[in-house]
Structures are given as structure tokens and as C-alpha cells.
From TrEMBL:
Subcellular location: Membrane
Family of the protein in this entry: Belongs to the ADIPOR family.
Organism name: Folsomia candida (Springtail)
Gene Ontology cellular component terms for the protein in this record: plasma membrane
Protein's name according to its UniProt entry: Adiponectin receptor protein
Any GO molecular function: metal ion binding
Superkingdom field: Eukaryota
Alphabetical keyword list: Membrane, Metal-binding, Receptor, Transmembrane, Transmembrane helix, Zinc
A Gene Ontology BP annotation from the UniProt entry: adiponectin-activated signaling pathway
Annotated PANTHER family: ADIPONECTIN RECEPTOR PROTEIN, ADIPOR/PROGESTIN RECEPTOR-RELATED
Tagged with keyword Transmembrane: yes
List of residues binding Zn(2+): 138, 284, 288
InterPro entries in alphabetical order: AdipoR/HlyIII-related
Membrane topology note: Multi-pass membrane protein
Length: 320
């Protein structure tokens, strides 16, 4: 009888021991589920060397980086904190909002012809798309590697869209008296823009190793406007182009864009002052500000050219 009672007791004890042994495992598993949420709420800025490879973009920015935040909500909340991406986010977020406001104001003016509204709306679309995608990328690229890659591609697609939108109204008004040249330049702009978009969607193109190459591609797309610019000056005359016509604004836009690309690709000044430009003064922030300034210069020039084109005698005395 004693042996008969002893066996169930032993089985009961072993079963009890197994249950007790599984408790820490359940607690461990539950802690693994809860841990990311705690980390997300209490994240702190970290150094470059502690980031995963997919977040390591600029080795000259030593500290102030966001860690991976696998939550869209936390990524969005992080735009109100100070880190390496704060100015990058807000410079283009405010730029997007500013051009949305400009577009609403422009479209609501009854005295402006519908044709002019449609032409300049292409520019507004390019500007708002570029700045919105850029701000979104810098806000949530720390979410995960897949999100980082996706929005990095969309960021460059936005740059291509801005370039195409910037060229369109200039070619429309600048070559209004020469429809054939206008169509040729539009076609070249479209196909070059499409080429940069295709390149932007390539996985290899988005890696830091290809930074100089992608900077060169976008610079080349921008420099493609040199040929129609020279054509315009040869037709209108150098003095007239820079005194009567608002060609100086187009030149200013080009200079600001090219300067921005040079800062972006060279990583100056953080290359010279490691750790001093982590939060403010880094090359990417300068690039953002110069692009916004160049876009405003472009917008102002387009408005002036539209007024000039609407005046009587715009095409008189011009030999095509």
C-alpha cells in the first residue's frame, strides 16, 4: 500500500515541478513581449557606433542618434525631440506646409488665368511631394530596415519630382514662342526625370557607398537645364535675359541647388568638426535649407516670367 501511494505522489511531484519550471519560461516570454514597449517609451539618443548597420549613414555624426524605434507612433513623436534628424525633419516639413499655403493662395486668385494655374500647379506638386516625402523619410527611417529602405527610395523619387516640376513652368513660359524647342526640352526633362526615378528605386542605389554616384546623377539631371538656358539667352539676348526677363532667379535656383548637392556629397562641415555638428550645422541640414531657398527662388522667377509672357509683344522681334 505504501508503494502504491508513493508512485502517484512521485508523479504528482514531478508534474508540479514541471509546472513550476515552466513558470519562469512564461514570465520570460511575457517579458520579451513587453520589453520593446518599455524601451520605446524610454528611449534615449545613442552614439553612431551603437547603431545597427542599416542606420549607420554618416560616421562623422558621433552622437545624438535615435535608436531603432519599431513603432510608427514613436517615430512620429520623436520629431518633437532633439536628435540628429530634428532639423532635417522640420526644415522640409515646414517647407511642405509653406508651399501648400502658397498653392492655396495662388489657386484662389480669380484674376489668374486657368492656364497659368495649371502650369504652376505642376511646380507646386513637385515641391510639396519632395518636401513631404523627405520629411517623412527622416521622421520614420529609424523604424526598421525595410521601412528605411522603402522611404529612402521615395525620398529620392521626391527629389526627381521636384526637379521635373521646377523645369516644367520655365520651359513652358521661356519657350512659349518656340513650340518645337519647348516640346523637345520637355521630352528630355521627362525621360531624364524618369531615369532618376528608376535609379532611385534600385536597392543598391540607396546605400551609403553609392552616395557620390547618386549625387552625380541628380546633379547631372539639374545640369541638363544648362542647354535650354543657353538657348534662352541666345534668343532673348544676355542683357535682356538678366535685366528685363527674370533669368537671374533661374540662375540663383541652380546655384543654390548645386551648392546643396556639394554639401550633401562632401559631408562638410562635420567631416572637419567631428562630433560638433551632430545636432545643428551638419551638411544634410544645409542641403535641406538650400533646396527650400532654391525652390522659392524658382517660384518667384516663374511668377515674374508668367507676368512677362502675358504682356503684349513678348514674342516680337525674336528670331527662332
Amino acid at each position: 500500500m505504501a508503494r502504491r501511494n508513493l508512485r502517484p505522489t512521485a508523479l504528482g511531484d514531478s508534474s508540479l515541478q514541471e509546472k513550476e519550471a515552466k513558470k519562469p519560461l512564461r514570465l520570460l516570454n511575457s517579458s520579451k513581449i513587453e520589453q520593446p514597449q518599455v524601451c520605446l517609451r524610454e528611449w534615449k539618443c545613442c552614439q553612431f557606433k551603437t547603431l545597427p548597420n542599416w542606420l549607420q549613414d554618416n560616421q562623422f555624426l558621433i552622437s545624438g542618434h535615435r535608436p531603432p524605434l519599431p513603432s510608427v507612433r514613436e517615430c512620429c513623436k520623436s520629431i518633437f525631440r532633439i536628435h540628429t534628424e530634428t532639423i532635417n525633419i522640420w526644415s522640409h516639413l515646414l517647407g511642405a506646409l509653406a508651399f501648400i499655403g502658397e498653392a492655396i493662395h495662388f489657386m484662389n486668385q480669380e484674376k489668374i488665368p486657368l492656364e497659368q494655374k495649371l502650369v504652376i500647379s505642376v511646380f507646386f506638386f513637385g515641391a510639396v511631394t519632395c518636401f513631404s516625402l523627405s520629411a517623412t523619410f527622416h521622421a520614420i527611417h529609424c523604424h526598421s530596415e525595410s521601412v528605411c529602405k522603402l522611404f529612402s527610395k521615395l525620398d529620392y523619387v521626391g527629389i526627381s519630382t521636384l526637379s521635373m516640376g521646377s523645369f516644367f513652368p520655365w520651359l513652358y513660359y521661356g519657350f512659349n514662342c518656340d513650340t518645337w524647342s519647348q516640346m523637345v526640352y520637355w521630352s528630355v526633362t521627362f525621360f531624364l526625370g524618369l531615369a532618376t526615378i528608376v535609379a532611385s528605386l534600385s536597392d543598391k542605389f540607396g546605400t551609403p557607398r553609392w552616395r557620390p554616384i547618386r549625387a552625380s546623377i541628380f546633379a547631372g539631371f539639374g545640369l541638363s537645364g544648362v542647354i535650354p538656358a543657353i538657348h534662352y539667352i541666345s534668343v532673348r539676348g544676355f542683357i535682356r535675359a538678366f535685366t528685363i526677363d527674370p533669368f537671374g532667379w533661374l540662375l540663383l535656383m541652380a546655384v543654390l541647388y548645386i551648392l546643396g548637392v556639394l554639401f550633401y556629397s562632401s559631408r562638410i562641415p562635420e567631416r572637419w568638426y567631428k562630433g560638433k555638428c551632430d545636432i545643428m550645422g551638419q551638411s544634410h541640414q544645409i542641403f535641406h535649407i538650400l533646396v527650400v531657398a532654391g525652390t522659392y527662388a524658382n517660384y518667384h522667377g516663374v511668377l515674374q516670367l508668367a507676368k512677362l509672357r502675358g504682356a503684349d509683344g513678348f514674342c516680337e522681334g525674336i528670331e527662332i
